[in-house]
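Sat 14:20. Reprocessing the chain from the morning session after the first attempt stalled halfway. Input below, unchanged.
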Amino acid sequence: MHVRASSWILLLGLCLGYILAAGVPASWSKHDGVLEGVQAVTLLAGGLVAVLAAYQQRGMAVGKIWWVAAMGWLGLLSHELAGHAGLPQAQVWLDAGQRLPSGWMPWPALAAAGAYAALLLAGVYWVLRYRLLSRVVARWWHEAATPWGCVLVGMLALLLAAVAQGQVGLPMLQMPDTTRSVMVAMTECWVYAALWWAQWLLLHHMQDWRLSSYLQTMHFSRSSLGERFERRSI
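Finished this time. Tokens:
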């Protein structure tokens, strides 16, 4: 398993961020706070890079993987919006002493959840339609291009977030709930940062595919009209 130096930097940043979260203002983890803004910018940037990569590799069948990646980024953004949409209105209701109806969900959150589900289904369809698992993912594995370091950092960040929320059952130092919320928001930022960097590494790895695919598949074929040059891409 090849772990790049950049993965060690991600791991170091994750550990430092988790430790220093106790000194970060609690307002950073609130709705529309600094950390949520960082998450939104990272997700939008990831989606934009995926769209640009899809346009750059539009002549390749394997380039469809970047449209799936763009759907994934937008799906994550919809998931974040679904978790926060309508919260101020709901808080006003609760402060006024009113109870929310059973199963009630603000319409912005409902719309965001619907968008998340639609993007998820569309991504699965594209993966199956263009056989991206065998065409792309299997080739990443064969060429040892999978950014395992980023994957491990992202999984560790998810685990640390679950620990901070008390969902894992591991012992945790007694600290205010505001500090725990900062830790959760901080680790979520590093999850998205690890995904962003993994996408960037794979994009650079696939730059060579566009050149090699044409060189390896060029061939001549003869027809009744004479010699014809054909060029195909994977």
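Residues 86-104, 213-234 have pLDDT under 50 and may be disordered.
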